Amino acid sequence: MKVTLSLTHNCNLSCRYCYSGRKFKKEMSFVTAQKIVDFAMNITPTNQKIEFSFFGGEPLLCFDLMKEIIEYIRGKERELRRPVRFGVTSNGILLTQSILDFFEEEDVDLCISIDGPAPVHNLNRCYKGGHGSFKEVVRNLRLAIKQLGTLQVNAVYGPKTIDSLMESISFFTQLGVSVIHLNPDIRASWKEDTFPKIRETYMQIASYYIQSYQQGQEIAINLIDSKIIVFLKGGYDVADRCGMGETEWGFAPSGNIYPCERLIGEDSDSLLCLGNVHTGLDSVRRCSLLKQRGNRNEECKACDLQKYCMNWCGCTNYFMTGHTDLAGSMLCENEKSAIQAAKHALVTLSEKDNELFIDHFMKYLHKGRHYEQKGVRIYG
What we know:
The protein is α/β, with parallel strands linked by helices. It is 44% helix and 13% strand.
């Protein structure tokens, strides 16, 4: 079960592609947070682990509240004997030594949003006045790597920055980043003339991935790793698919319930809101939403790559087509290109019997979904 608490609509940045919408000062109350935790504990089957993630806006603007919530969850964990994990997605600007000490003590998985070297990052991740945030983010990213060792980054790319993806990956590995998430801007206008660039870039990433393992450097890139895992499993299974409104929940600062944190936005979409923790879950609306999961595109159903394709991600589909159950042309191209790139990496490294590569994926086999255990979304 994945439960995301959006602690505030406010943010200290004004990124040009943020799907959280307009920034305004509205924070979650501790009482609301308690209700969310209780809701999550009640709705989650006893055999499932609960992952509590903190989101925003910028969640570190509410760090004191976050500490209170984690303390409350720890109490529930002991009382109910329900194992939990914690994760935080942050722009990194407010990170301090004391915050990192707390994350280390409570085993909180940290993901920092950074798009690449300064020219790439500053293009979109900027302050309200328009100047870039790279200097502050990379300074604190280095501090976090030194403190925590294992660190994830989330890099968003669009039609104007996809040419810089390889440069960004190289930059991250040189910094010592453990896990790299590459995510397309799902709200951008991806025209068909960008599709060849997607295919070309993904194959370049696969070549870089292969070269890294051949040179004895372990690397984790969601674009490649997630698809290789799917190959090893023989395709996505039911548990992998979009669990919006069932195994995945997002909560706005108001306590309003959404099927995914990426659908909270400004907390103004009544069609996607499934109730409020203070007044209860709207079962009728939830049932209606559950019927609209998956993918009703007939062309997708006939595709040979269907079982390896993430065409069922509700929030991605919604932002690209306006429907949670209808995949768009960019997602189709993205998935085909990722599948091709990952297959190339898997076949090449397997034929070479690369021990480091084999050991990398043995983690999944022996520990379950290793990166999901560490709070990383590898599907979607």
